[in-house]
Amino acid sequence: MAVSRSNSIVISVLAGLLLFTFASSYAPGFGDRTASAAITLQGTGATFPAPLYQRWFKEYNQMHPDVQINYQALGSGAGIKQFQQGLVDFGASDAAMTDAEIAAVKNGVVLLPMTAGSIVLTYNLPGVSELMLPRDAYVGIFLGKITKWNDPVIAKANPGATLPDTAITVVTRSDGSGTTFVFTSHLSAISPDWQKGPGAGKSVSFPVGVAGKGNPGVTALIKQTPGAIGYVEYGYAKQTAMPMAVLENKIGKFIKPDLASGQKALAGVELPANMRAWITDPVAADAYPIVTYTWLLCYKKYQDPKTAEALKAVIRYGLSKGQSFSAELGYIPLPADTVNQVTKALDQIS
Amino acid sequence: MTSGVTREISRPPIGLEIVGDRIFRQLSLAGAAFTLVLVVWIIVSIARVAAPAVHTYGLSLLVGSKWDANRAEFGILPAIWGTLYSSILGLIIGTVFGLAIAIFLSEGFLAIGLDAVISAMGLSDNLFWSGMPVRVQDLLQIIIELLAAIPSVVYGLWGIFVIIPLVRPPADWLHSHLGWIPVFSTTLSGPGMLPAALVLAIMVLPTISAISRDALVAVPPKMREAAFGIGATRWEAILAIFVPTAATGIFGAIILGFGRALGETMALAMLAGNANVISWSVFSPANTLAALLANHFPEADQVEVGALMYAALVLLAITLLVNVVGTVILQRADSQLKGLR
């Protein structure tokens, strides 16, 4: 413990020197926790569900002014790390914790899927309004095997479109992210070449392309580069009005990313008791192929029963009323079965 | 003091002054020592976290070219290459323009033009107008120094939305016509070495121009007079006498600029493309050490943090080396010029 604490001091010192942009959020404030009757819940984690969570927490705080929830969107990795170190009341991650990660938490872990979302391929091709991408095309593009937009593999799937002779510029995420994890997990699931090559992870070594930081970085590069293609979250692409490619799913149907196709993907998934379900390649007929749950990480035991009760109330709100904000913000509301299952899982928290 | 009583000008210091002097000396010493301790502390603490990675990867990290956290394969050669290449490229461009600005602002070129206008308008006797050239010079200098106050992230954004579209047409032309030259051998896909180096050049410009100008202004008047006295033209005097005399200061400016370019993070993370590629081509995407650190830190696990700290040590070593070499050269040059001062 002593070693890892001094390590984290070192990390924060260096972070302060090099990464002032990130560093400002490294120290969650504990000061206001002692405020008389009010309860403050601290959370850290994924950026992907952050807009939705922040909306929930704001609305909830307006109804219950005595409960204040701070959520810092530092990324899934940071969420898991700070949750393990006990620095926060809850964490959030786009990648569910592994068994090894769970074993490291003394107070026990409850994983709660709270919402879901799709990852889309967005592109910059002047004159092409709809782009169909078969599986071998988008795997080939990200592997660097398909380098021109008028490649026969792409042309065959888009008979109506006039595809230019421009080079394809692949744009990826430069920072580690849950989005990359979900996208590369999907690529690994559908392509043995990808699995053997770059593999799946929060940051992988992409064989080609340039990289931008965060969804905004990727989007900016795509907008500035004719012939570019990259992956971002559906909600972000929708907000910024980026074109989204129509992807071939497992049974060979071309599916547009939207709310309905995302819901179809979730409907085909049964959640196990530990709530960890990887939807790397949904089987349902009209399912969009790249969809993920995103999880809240809670302890099984809290020191202060008030904290536990407040947190459970907030989560119940998110599972009921909160789901109605999902569609508007570009997320997929959880299926009713899942909501019931997650609500039941709340009983494990005390 | 001004009570009218005649007092001797010199007197022994009173007790309070001696104590104050001692305290001040101790404080200065403590301050100086603290700075040293801080540097050592930073290096030691980074080195401690880096130690496992140094032990595991050793020199293979320095020559490896893949950064793959999944397979715990770490190599920073492309990042070292990108850091040095972008800094040197940016520095060359920045030095050319920075030195030109320094000469323009210190050798009275502005005054020649403005004086002509002012006297043509018959205003040379007017105090306000005759002081104009100097004020305009100062204003220009301040504007250039303001460049240093622009946050790095703003440079990055500006680079993405302005510089990249601007350099794309000439870059495409150069690639299609002169693609056989290694420097133009790839296409510019968007972010890459050239936009990164151009923005770096602008970022180091204020440092280089301000310090070079100070050095040129400090050239002794007797040398200026002597230069013109022996019949040198304006350009001969500037290029053969003033610039060489101020070379120490100019060189110092370049070293300082180099230091800034090496450590620059945000703008390069946004513009260089963050791709682990080693290429002579200025249109190819690249990666730098500082951008690598900034991109991978927030999500890194323990093993990757070790490797990142190792990379940080390498960056520190490069920066230190540049500064030490710079200081040594400066001292050499300074001692050669001593007779002139």
List keywords for this structure.
heterodimer, A: about 350 residues, alpha/beta, B: about 350 residues, mainly alpha, two-stranded antiparallel sheet, 14 helices
Main β sheet profile of chain B? 2 strands, antiparallel
Overall pLDDT of chain B, averaged?
87
Strand elements of chain A, count? 11
Mean pLDDT of chain A: 84
Strand arrangement in the largest pleated sheet of chain B: 1-2
Topology:
The complex is a heterodimer of chains A (350) and B (341).
Chain A: H1 2-18, H2 20-23, E1 39-45, H3 50-63, E2 67-72, H4 76-84, E3 90-93, H5 99-103, E4 109-123, E5 132-133, H6 135-143, H7 152-157, E6 169-173, H8 178-190, H9 192-196, E7 210-212, H10 214-224, E8 228-233, H11 234-239, E9 246-248, E10 254-255, H12 259-267, E11 291-299, H13 305-319, H14 326-329, H15 336-345
Parallel strand pairs in A: 1-2, 1-3, 5-9, 6-7, 6-8
Antiparallel strand pairs in A: 3-11, 4-8, 4-11, 9-10
Chain B: H1 15-57, H2 60-63, E1 67-68, E2 73-74, H3 77-106, H4 109-120, H5 127-130, H6 132-146, H7 152-178, H8 193-217, H9 221-229, H10 234-245, H11 247-263, H12 266-271, H13 289-296, H14 302-337
Antiparallel strand pairs in B: 1-2
Helix pairs in contact in B: 1-14, 3-8, 3-11, 4-6, 6-8, 7-8, 8-11, 9-10, 11-14, 13-14
Briefly summarize what is shown.
The complex is a heterodimer of chains A (about 350) and B (about 350). Chain A has about 350 residues and is α/β, with parallel strands linked by helices.
Describe the protein:
The complex is a heterodimer of chains A (350) and B (341). Chain A is α/β, with parallel strands linked by helices. Chain A has helices at 2-18, 20-23, 50-63, 76-84, 99-103, 135-143, 152-157, 178-190, 192-196, 214-224, 234-239, 259-267, 305-319, 326-329, 336-345; strands at 39-45, 67-72, 90-93, 109-123, 132-133, 169-173, 210-212, 228-233, 246-248, 254-255, 291-299. In chain A, the strands form 2 sheets. In chain A, strands 2-1-3-11-4-8-6-7 form an 8-stranded mixed β-sheet. The two termini of chain B are 40 Å apart. Classes of the chains: A alpha/beta (350), B mainly alpha (341). The interface between A and B is large, with 46 and 47 residues.
